[in-house]
Amino acid sequence: MIYGIGTDICDVRRIRASLERHGDRFALKILSEAEFKTWKARSARWPERGVRFLATRFSAKEAFSKAIGLGMRMPMTWRLCEVGKLASGKPVIVLHGVLKDWCEARGLSAQVSVTDETDYAASFVVVEQKEKNP
Ligand SMILES: CC(C)(COP(=O)(O)OP(=O)(O)OC[C@H]1O[C@@H](n2cnc3c(N)ncnc32)[C@H](O)[C@@H]1OP(=O)(O)O)[C@@H](O)C(=O)NCCC(=O)NCCS
Description:
Layout: E1 2-11, H1 12-22, H2 24-30, H3 33-45, H4 47-67, E2 81-85, E3 91-95, H5 97-105, E4 108-117, E5 120-129
Antiparallel strand pairs: 1-5, 2-3, 4-5
The structure holds coenzyme A.
């Protein structure tokens, strides 16, 4: 059954400004280790792609935080919620640490979709809960 849904829209210009002000420190606060590596590689090739990558991750993590009903409160943290990618290109939520434990204890799994266009990035997350055996 559906446990929760979450959505978020992120202003790409704000992400760009934060990156200009704080550089890698801002990216490190938002991104998991694996995401940070991808961000570094994309930014090196084309800085604007790095900005957009960070903006979609930012919005997906906020959308996930709403879908689980916590917002950005422990155990929900930016870096414990990773947005990975399947070979097909489909994004997937990969959880770590206490957030993973919290979701597993409740039988929760998530589906995510992200999009971006010019000045905005947006995400939608659906969280499902495994039915308990009768
Ligand atoms: C949920 C949250 C991430 C959204 O923040 P935001 O990007 O500034 O705001 P957005 O416009 O994207 O979303 C706001 C909407 O999120 C929804 N929302 C707020 N808390 C929520 C929660 N726990 N679960 C699901 N949705 C939530 C509300 O509908 C809110 O709209 P409303 O205030 O008009 O009802 C943020 O409100 C949050 O995490 N708050 C808790 C942070 C906090 O108190 N931290 C303290 C740590 S010490």
